[in-house]
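Today's session is about reading a structure prediction critically. Students often jump straight to the picture, but the first step is always the sequence itself: look for stretches that repeat, for charged clusters, for runs of hydrophobic residues. Only then move on to the predicted structure, which in these notes is written as discrete structure tokens rather than atom positions. Here is the chain we will use throughout the hour.
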Amino acid sequence: MLFSDLLSNFDFKFLQSPISEMSLAEADILMTPNPDYPLYEGASPYRIDAQGIDAVVNFLQRGGRVLSAALPVGAQPLLTFEGDVFGFSVKVGKGKLAVIGDAGVVSNGLYHFPGSDNSAFPVSLFNDMSPASGTARPPVFEVFEFGHLSCATSEHGTAEKIFKTLRPQARFSIDHHYRHLTHESAAVPAPVAEALRKLPVGLDELAKGKALKAKFHFINISDGHSTSPFDMPLTVWAKTSEMGTDYIVVGASVNEGLSWKDIGADPAVFSSIGELARVNTVVQILAGTHPDGSLRYYTAKQGQIFYDRNARNPHYGFDILLGSRNLTISPTVP
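Below is the predicted structure for this chain, in token form.
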């Protein structure tokens, strides 16, 4: 019932992925009912972890708003009854945090409870939480870039010792039989013109039609190595509303006949393991513009699967590496 009331003044979406820099890039307000509810069978697998907390804090710093998060220091009473505090708000960076003690205030059963009117409070709160970035054209955006490299290491091919040397500054982790290297740069502010130069596919190109072709570079296997360009066919889906236009852009390609240098891998290391047989690439871009065509938000994900023919691999006959490159451009409140 709350969503029904909010639709007259807000555009909202259900979060279909874990809380992260990318999932919050287009948001002005984040609402998380029962964020610490105990995990039980059938519950959502998306719990707020350490990375999610970092993403929420950064969201607040650049001017976003959050509902129902952890209790901060310096909170001001927002909802009280008979001397008890059931809700509070506090400034965090350029944003505002509001915490309500019970998610029942937005549940259908209590939203229009007889003898009271819970509906007035959350609607008023949402109006109060609306940041300037929801309607204004921000002069500065936040640019955040990160990526991953993963491999099921093997002594018969890409050994763990070799894998760790590919990106020495990255964070190393182990998940089952896969090894992962996560690398990221600090989020930096960027004027509009600089943010637009970061886009792998420009806004003018997105507005042209349903199908287009763009040039990308392969994700580099080794840190500091350049890669070759390739053409990627893209399909563009656009939806226009009062907020502006939202784009979903997807593409996939298969490339063969490549050398190790094409993907930024040291031939001295990988030629002894095997021959590069194929590189599969998938791209997804989520972007939004204001009604006048100016930038609202932009996220781009590029993922690749590298197949290295290795007759000594007892399972597949190939060593397989996974790589990703990600870009998030989010509006900030002046």
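Discussion point for the tutorial: The domain at 2-133 is CATH 3.40.50.880 (Rossmann fold).
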